[in-house]
Amino acid sequence: MRVYVESFGCAQNLGEGAAITRSLHAAGHSIAVSPAAADAGVLVTCAVIGPTEARMVRRWSWLAEQLPRVVVTGCLVPLRADLLTGPALARTTIVPIRDQSRIPSLLGPPSAGPPAPLKDTVSSIPPPVIEEIPIAQGCTSACSYCFSRLARGRLESRSIPALVEAVQAALHRGAAEIRLSSLDTSAWGGDLEGSPTLPDLLDAVGGIPGSHKVRLGMLSPQTLEPIAGRTLQALERGRYFRFLHLPVQSGSDDVLGAMRRGYDVNTFRGLVRDARARLPDLTLATDIIVGFPTEGDRDFLASLDLVEEIEPEIVNVTRFSPRPMTPAARLPPLGPRIAKRRSRALAALRMRIARRHFERWIGRASNALTVERGPGPSTVARLPNYLAVVLPGALPLGSEIPVVIEGARSTYLVGRTEAAPSLRDVA
Ligand code: SF4
Fold first, then answer.
1. Taking the chain, what is the end-to-end CA distance rounded to the nearest angstrom?
2. Radius of gyration for the alpha carbons in the chain, expressed in angstroms and rounded
3. pLDDT tens per residue across span 12-64
4. Which of 52, 155, 300, 308 is the most exposed, having the fewest neighbouring CB atoms within 10 Å of its CB?
5. How far is the CA of 182 from the centre of ligand 1 (A)?
6. Does any domain span residue 427?
7. If 0-12 CB within 10 Å is exposed, 13-18 middle and 19+ buried, where does residue 5 land?
8. Which residues line ligand 1 (CB under 6 A)?
9. Whose CA is nearest to atom 4 of ligand 1?
10. Are 278 and 407 members of one domain?
């Protein structure tokens, strides 16, 4: 059977979509580049905010019009499958996240003969040198606005041997950038025998030989704090990108309390201070929710002040979206204009800060790992602190090369390989 796979959302969801695609191919199915070239489709949904959920329902109904069979999985499934209605439902199979390994057999016998090679047909797997490795399902926190934890349930960590094997298999497939992902990577291990913690996993994965680099996925200040020292020590190894994705969500302790985040702003400050002290050139990414129902003007100003003070390289701004079955959905909402105005103000601030950070790199030389194709004939490479640098030409992927930074844009750097003539020389 020719199967089209489409995935949306966070790193974990994309990683699961890639794993589904590989398992379909291993079971003898061919992977189609488009619905038009497929006999069936798999939709890996995201339901983190309302607008995305609505988009997933539209995407499903469109796919179900094109294809005789559609499998729907991902975060929409456990709690919002009732949104999928109408005659197309007869052609739809709903598969819970934890049953995704059954998808190949659910689709029935593969076509006769060997499946087409993955590299010829794949559209929805990330470029071959980047692989997402989900390290756990679920979460241990109970943030009041969060739908993902309701969709993914209690924490279920994969064991160290299973994860070491998964990383080795990815390296064998040609991966050069490994992304360890989860709803909260610093919660990993709490459900396993002997309660290993994230640093134990990082030490094990960090010890796998090769020329690859590893990016650690999203952590929560609440679960990171008790293990911060050893986690930062593990990230000091050259194997890891000096990158920390640590969502703070608000600069106001009152709002953090209403969000039930389980930490205060000073805890976040302390973690950032320690991380920057141990990891030079660290790239800090954080998330801020604006428009949370209890967020007053002073609370929002506190978020702006915190971003101005901490100067994260990356700030992901999300407007609050009430999610069904969450405590925060029962709070009286703020007007949409307030959230819009606040997200614009925060977006303008983060762009200014990003540009300041990036411009400091102009003229510097560094090694960088080439990981994906950029716009036009260009290549995206990652510096040791995970900043993206766009290089001219289609360079071999998966190689560590010396580069010189020549320019800065709001979300990436521009550079050349050290051997190449500088823009000034060719100007
Ligand atoms: S840490 Fe909070 S926001 Fe993140 S997945 Fe867990 S419950 Fe949701």
1. 53
2. 22
3. 899 899 999 999 988 989 899 899 999 999 999 999 888 899 999 999 999 99
4. 308
5. 10
6. no
7. buried
8. 139, 141-143, 146, 148-149, 183-184, 220
9. 183
10. no
